[in-house]
Records
---
Amino acid sequence: MQEEPGFHIDLSKTLIQDGPKFLSHTVVISGNNAYLRPTISSMLFCFIYIVVGAFLTTLASYIMITSGQLDLAIFIGGFGVAIATFGVTLIQPFLKRARFDRKKGVFDNGVDRNVKLEQILSLQINNKVVKRKQALNYHCYELNMLTKNGRRINVLNHNSINQILIDAELLKNFLKIEVDDMRREIVL
Amino acid sequence: MKKVHQLLGLLMLAFSANLYAEEKGAFGAAIASVSESVDGFFNDYTGWFVSSIFYSVPVGDASFPIIVGWLLVAAAIFTVYFGFVQFTRARMSIDIVSGKFSDPNSKEDGEVSHFQALTTALSGTVGLGNIAGVGAALAIGGPGATFWMILCGLLGMASKFCECTLGVKYRTVLPSGAISGGPMYYLSRGLGEMGLGGFGKVLAVGFALMCLLGSFGGGNMFQANQAHAMLTYAFEVPSEYGMITGLVLAALVFSVIVGGMPSIASVTEKVVPWMAVLYVGMAIVVIGANIGQVGAAFSAIFEGAFTGAGVAGGVIGALIQGLKRATFSNEAGIGSAAIAHSAVKTKEPVTEGLVSLLEPFIDTVVICTMTALVITIAGLNAAPYPGDGLTGVQLTAASFTQTAGVFKYLLALAVILFAFSTMISWSYYGLKAWTYLFGEGASIELVYKVIFCVFVVLGATIQFGAVIDFSDAAIFAMSIFNIAGLYFLMPVVKKELQSFVARVYSGEIKKYD
């Protein structure tokens, strides 16, 4: 790639600060589509919040109906609604299936503006250490795409490097583009 | 369909507040029975451990636990050895926290400033120790226990300085890339450098074992137990229903520590500091509303400290309670803080030590004193102090509620979030100890995490003293191994401090104003 003067894109920089400590998505190729499928385990962890939240909300309703203890019902119900809402928010990205559609010629992740496949220049694998204040730090990896007009968009973000490498290879063949391994040594 | 309805009805009945009637249902009786069995188990199998850790010698009318003396003497020795670092270098600590030693132009990506590090650490330190611990201390030790808590907080600053400096100096990078530090590493590596590798290894393994127990006890069961006790106080939820509180907390803890969901951890990290602000705000409101009684409250604290009136064991009794609860709250000398601080991004280990020494001051000297003032002002804790009435989180909550009824709800919210965040923090400490003992690996770590979640349920379910005693003992036991090693390693810390101070004065380390 010819670098224009005064126009530098640091491809080794990660796009997202955070990331899960598990494999969240895998790439599935189906005909003219390549889409990101959420893993069952990641969905299950989101469901924990929804189930706990729904349980607390139901319990609060039951307390209200049977004993009329308003303060306890509000307290438990408040927690329930907050936790369930959190779970629903958490599961949203898993339900939106980001896909590369060769028929329509676009990449649609439901978040960013659609990208024409012909605009996609390359893919990069980046690494980072997610620092938790109350837990072990862990490695996380991103698969990002670079477009011809300099946009960088995240495709995958999880902690399974093996799966990222496999998925990058699949997308490389699907999109006929190059994949750059931009992982760097991270020293704290 | 009818069967489904019946089943749902039964399930809801089992969990419902409808059973809050005085007559215990079958569910309540079953829970009480489980609770009693587990307590019996703890009493039978851990009683020896508790009595060994809290082995006491008669001092006056009281029995003085040697472990309390061990912590106090160590804190006093560190204070003298480091030249009263908590007072002489307090300005330097504040300068580091306010970023005066950080080049404003060289902040790297993701770097956490010392101020952020302090607020993070504080949000981890301010918790049930400040709420339930002070309540327990005053219920048994009277207002005089507060004075000894303050003293312990001031001396504990030197212990924390020493252990946190070492935590950073001897941290290591695990094969997974995770940064790991804490007493396990400075005991084995630090003493290894001195040619005492074998001894260091023994101390490190001993510490790791006790840290594991501490993570199940004070860092887990005590938290879950007091969270449910708060619900019992605020909403009259029967104590038998602790299992439900435990199951809900365990499910959430499980999702964080097993699932590795970054979002919930981030939410907790963001919410807990606000809970600390809320708690301090409430205390200020209570103290402000009763400003005329503050003088009398301080008089009661000083008189109680030196007369021990109404306290079993007199002055020594008040001192023991103050020291025990202060240590439980600020964790100075225990070694847990060194694990948390070791992940900081810094090239100078001593700067983290200097930052960390502010924690016992804010935690114990400021916030615990505020709680003690609230309790003393409320006057619900009158002499004599047998400790069998209102105690722990319930005494603190009742004292806050004296000023405004709404405080019990806010306190319930804060207590639950504090308990949750403390459990997450201690699962981290425990996991560090576990991986130190058994190595890294997904399945090995999963075993620990599942056990940890089981203990959350147990802690909230059990209502009796044996579990609380075990929780206490496990935390204090960590100090045996930690402090033994600190005595050998304190010259290393002194050298680090002298070198840092010399470079600051010579201008090698720049100060940015």
---
Amino acid sequence: MRCYIAKILSNAPATDDVLQEANKVLWAKRDEWQQDTPFLKWAYRVCFFQAKAYLRDRSRERLVFDEDLVELLATDEVEYSDTDLQRALAACLAKASDTARELLVRRYVEGDSVKSLAERLALSPNALSQKLRRYRYQLQVCIENQTS
Amino acid sequence: MDRAKELVLKLVDRSLSDAEFAELQEIMRSDAELRAYYHRTIEIDQALEKMSLSELDATVPAARPTGGNGTLLWRNVGWLAAAIAIALLVLSQRQQSFDVVLKSSEQADWRGASLMVGERLGSRMMQLKNGKIELAFPTSTAVVIQAPAFFQVVADDTLVVAQGAVTVTHSGTPGSFSLETPTGTLRDLGTKFGVSIGSSNSESFVLTHVFDGQVAFENSSVEEEVIFGDGDYVEIRGVGENRPVTLLSDDPNAYLIPLTPPGDSGPAERRNLALHKPVESSGFWSNHKTELFPPSNVNDGRLDDTGVPRDWSFWLLPEKSTGWVMIDLEAVELISSIDIQNTHNRWYDDRAAKDFRIETSIDGDAFSPLIDGELAVPSKHETIPFETFEFDPVRARYVKLYIDTYKQSGGGINEIRIYE
């Protein structure tokens, strides 16, 4: 669900807040879930409306998708199964160069901020972001090869 | 990477300009393939963030304990342990940071905390499982450390090493750098020296060789510090820095070769397919009770005839015999390059491989010749080079190296690395 919301919000930091709101709504409306409807489908629908409500309130902020594109993104299929993705990610991280692996782990798994990581490595945040993007792109190419 | 994909990656970073965002939205509206790429990018990003350190460790081949179904009690204990671990983690993150920097590394494989080139060290104990690194201290001291190693920086002028091979080059003020070992402290008096540290069940070994200048050795059980001079090599045995030690001067075990600093980043980017894979051999040399030189030493990541008594870095064939060593890559791999590091059997300088040949197989039964040649035979005063043999890519699971001729008492190999 977090991933679904992140896609609609273009990975905005508010993803967790919206997820929390969606969880509250799911709990409050749990009696409305009809058991002949798949739970996840219902949950995604709730997430979609929560995300849309968030975007409506912040339509003037930067990097907010237009409504027509949000609709398109919400109806696109999920690309990877969780299991396939986890397996491919582990395999590709194991294959990645030491430097790429270290940097990706620091940034994403250990959660170091770009600013603090850049300071420790004596790089500008911009240079570090570019490196991270390049490594992520390589990782993505590897994952696509693994899962295709 | 094409521009649209780059814009997607920048969007996921939230670092797009307004104009770039407008451009990306326009393309995404009409390009389903790019939208699919966007979905995949976010899914990978989320999976990375969700990945735990333990899951990440599982991507590194290692023996791991298996978990069973826990009882409620054990689950509660687990939660308690987790809470303690988090508290310890928070405390450990408040560690001191020093002006000691990781200057370079070669195929470094860390366990627990890790370091990147250019990064300053904190005060935590570090474990280098494989590879080689160089630290730069503000005391004008360069320290090369070869795995497997446990070490800890405790001050801008002091390094603690519990295990590993180390070469210290100190050009600062004499006496301004110290290396603390399990048997005592080695204080650099403006010199270059090597140390190899290990332990058996009952005692620690600190093999020390002064390549140039002088080193002072201090142990609280020794009344006055002991000075090791230029060319001295000494084996120090003991059970603690405050307990009596035995100094064995001119012990052949302690004759070390300086470690070379890690190479450039080129080889580090490649994955050594042979590292820690299963190995067998036609035999290996041992003198029954004290020393063993098993075939698993040829792909353990330890180089340069290093180690300590009963735990050396190289494989030796039985006395005056030819033979082979074979690495099972555990899967059919495409290989195109093999690095070999010979041995000279430390100070003894009496064993080395000369003529060799390599054969490969996919099933372990039918082998085909791959390469043959003659390895350089370095003397005990020389660093042992890695020799690289490149060839047209072949598919292989089993790589078998035969030693057909050898120096004096027998053949042997320090390390074999195999690459795609």
